[in-house]
Amino acid sequence: MKVTLKIWRQPDAQAQGAMRTYELDGVSTDMSFLEMLDVLNEDLIAKGEDPVAFDSDCREGICGMCGLMINGQAHGPEVTTTCQLHMRSFKDGDEIVIEPWRADAFPVVKDLVVDRGAFDRMIQAGGFISVNTGSAPEAHSVPVPRDDAIRAFNVATCIGCGACVAACPNGSASLFMGAKITHLGELPQGQPERDSRVVGMVSQHDAEGFGGCTNIGECTAACPKEIPLDVISQLNRDLQTALRHGH
Amino acid sequence: MTDMPDTTLTSDPSHDAPGEPADDAAGYYTPGDPIRDTKAPEGPISERWQTRKFEARLVNPSNRRKLDVIIVGTGLAGGAAAATLGEAGYNVKSFCYQDSPRRAHSIAAQGGINAAKNYKEDGDSVHRLFYDTVKGGDYRSRESNVYRLAEVSTNIIDQCVAQGVPFAREYGGLLDNRSFGGVQVSRTFYARGQTGQQLLIGAYQAMERQVAAGTVEQFTRHEMLELIVVDGKARGIIARDLVTGEIETHLADVVVLASGGYGNVFFLSTNAMGSNVTASWRAHRKGAYMANPCYTQIHPTCIPVTGTHQSKLTLMSESLRNDGRIWVPKKQSDCEKDPRDIPEEDRDYYLERIYPSFGNLVPRDIASRAAKNVCDEGRGVGPAVDGVRRGVYLDFSAAIERLGRDGIEEKYDNLFDMYARITGENPYEVPMRIYPAVHYVMGGLWVDYDLQSTIPGLFVTGEANFSDHGANRLGASALMQGLADGYFVLPHTIRDYLADGPFEKIDENHPAVVEARKSVEDRVAHFLNTQGTRSVDSYHRELGNIMWEYCGMERTEDGLKKAIDLIRTLKDDFWRNVKVLGTADTLNQSLEKAGRVADFLELGELMCIDALNRRESCGGHFRAESQTEDGEALRHDDQFAYVAAWEFAGDGEAPVLHKEDLAYTAIEMKQRSYK
What we know:
The complex is a heterodimer.
Chain A: E1 3-9, E2 18-24, H1 33-46, E3 69-70, E4 73-74, E5 95-99, E6 108-110, E7 113-114, H2 117-124, H3 146-156, H4 163-167, H5 174-185, H6 194-207, H7 218-222, H8 230-244
Parallel strand pairs in A: 1-5
Antiparallel strand pairs in A: 1-2, 3-4, 3-5, 6-7
Helix pairs in contact in A: 2-6, 3-5, 5-6, 5-8, 6-8
Chain B: E1 30-31, H1 48-55, H2 61-64, E2 68-72, H3 76-88, E3 91-95, E4 113-114, H4 126-136, H5 143-163, E5 188-189, H6 195-213, E6 216-219, E7 222-230, E8 233-241, E9 247-251, E10 254-257, H7 278-285, E11 290-291, E12 296-302, E13 325-329, E14 347-348, H8 350-354, H9 364-376, E15 384-385, E16 388-389, E17 392-395, H10 397-423, E18 432-441, E19 444-445, E20 458-460, H11 478-498, H12 511-530, E21 534-535, H13 536-550, H14 557-577, E22 578-579, H15 589-613, H16 637-640, E23 642-647, E24 656-661
Parallel strand pairs in B: 1-24, 2-3, 2-10, 3-6, 10-20, 21-22
Antiparallel strand pairs in B: 4-5, 7-8, 8-9, 11-19, 11-23, 12-18, 13-14, 13-17, 15-16, 17-18, 23-24
Helix pairs in contact in B: 3-6, 3-11, 4-5, 5-11, 13-14, 13-15, 14-15
Family (chain A): Belongs to the succinate dehydrogenase/fumarate reductase iron-sulfur protein family.
Domain 4Fe-4S ferredoxin-type (chain A): 149-178
Cofactor (chain A): [4Fe-4S] cluster; [2Fe-2S] cluster; [3Fe-4S] cluster
């Protein structure tokens, strides 16, 4: 099939970007979305034009490196990562608009590549349990109720792709943050640092320029791992508690 | 999978006469002196690690902050090491090519992590895990290393639980286990189908905590392009900032490579797009020996290739073989039919037919090769790519009848969803199609018991080294090895080396530093100035085709020699005719790939030479010349019970082969049989 691609091209962080239009023929429905872009890039190289820069690594939906706004939707029309989206979700003759994540806290590096370093810095601000290597107690010394473990796991599946931020009209990273707060907060091992964790992460979140949450819910709709919206309630509850404790 | 009986074959019905010296690779290599692991202590195997830990010298805490450690790679092996060495107080610099340490490809491991906890009280022990791993590796790994791996496995689970890794649990709140590939005990800890992700996030968070504490400095979107060796010691790296293009010099007292495996030499593999051999290969060219490079693990249950646009392959958990039945049509003329219209009597359940006792649960290498054979016969299914149908059915209809659709959903729903998303077919209604794909490499840089390479001050951990899996890795053991190396082995052994430091400061103008830097700059300039006609990917794809055809599931003397010729021709063309657009001072993904493919071309040739030299079949390495009358792999312990450690001898020069003899004192060598 044949598609018309409108792609954001921006040579580097400082340069002014613009949408460019490309026609691509011979697209197979079995191709993944990123393989379609690989084919476009091979065409561009053959013509002597700079290929489109985009991020991807595992291409199996788990590393979180890929992420594009496709026709205005983070990761496109399916509930999955960009790398797992396939061209059978599109029709012959479709026009597809491809942009990078749009958020102040994720500056564009080049074309469709953005800088998500803010997520690392939020984890540095408290998204961990302080336990030095070798100092851990026997694994069975602390039982964890099965339901708590399942809840912790479900939200720990966050891949840090940033779709939640890109989808949010406020550019908030509350879903990302709530997922980490809930993951560690559900487990007995996470309790000693529960207050300092939420305060640290929220402060860093705000310092990075992410917006506030106004319960719109676009984040959870765009999340390829279906992190539920109630992690943000947990986040707010934990923050209240920490502040009450005098943090 | 269940365990395989040990059957020691008394006769030797292979094509080769027993004991006959074989030197297929004569002319392709230069024989070198034997090599020996001088660090493994003597004494009972169960005491060696304790002995080494005690004998390894200590570094005073106040001296640690004067010692600089570079770690390349942030997967389980690199991330865990960065966290642990940071906690200990060393100055750590951590490098990864991705935009965050959390992206490293350890994240994609699905199944689980082995540990000899014996929580099921089913007879597991350190010794049994050790035994299973040596046997699974087809008696081509080093006993001392494997024993240590089994020994520290239990500490890993304790550490990860304390970090908040949400392992699966039973109703009583204790940890759940399942059994996995080739063993009879339940010792695999797991977090649904995302164990690698959860373990990596644990290591990543521990590392980020050290970044906040100021002991670890992280360099993301940086790629190591050269090793700096001064007076015979590894003293730093040259790295390229992938965003600004700046070529940077980073000096240190010690360098750790935790840069993963090189399965992408096959172009199509289950590795991440960026996984590459460059860090290891640059070190190899500077004097680090490469061990057993031909040992490749090919996983039988991957989604088949659909066309020439294919960029990577996706693995589906091996657990599917517990309930799915594998078949192809008996007649070629049926291969295009809807499988549901092919009656039972026209189906060939070839694994059940050839291996009646293990059936669909034969080990990975056997299942993979059998799939290749039926497709080579023209009985493959699915779309034809380059004229051949490369796929076999994995059919759940019997299991759905037996367990109901609900029963199958409960067990495999996420895998069925993934399959449906990628193929557009509903596996509840139409049989899945699968085909083997390159998944893991057992080969890697040679290291001694301390995980130190043949370059003093260069340590290698995780998949990047060769040490623990012999010729075949058992399921759920890659995660175990990565974390064992990173958390519990390297931090002890590296201190013995660092006890002599801090080493004399070196200047950025030191001739060795200038030379390393210049070689990187020259290479970058060469790629951009060549202005040839072929894209980097087209070379990579062609190399992958050569490797898959001649150095894949089945290797022959003639095929390997042909591959070496083809690779040499391709390499020459690559250096003269590659087309890399853009500039060096921005994000330039074609330029990044060009450097990686240049190194894959050299590695591919060495893999073929290694495979040519090893005229035996062992684990993932199958030489058609060395098989039993039944077509099974046949080892030649009298000739090949050694690690092949290859020394780089210069461009265009034959590599030098150093042999490390493998001695088995705790376990008796036996031939595998699965009939």
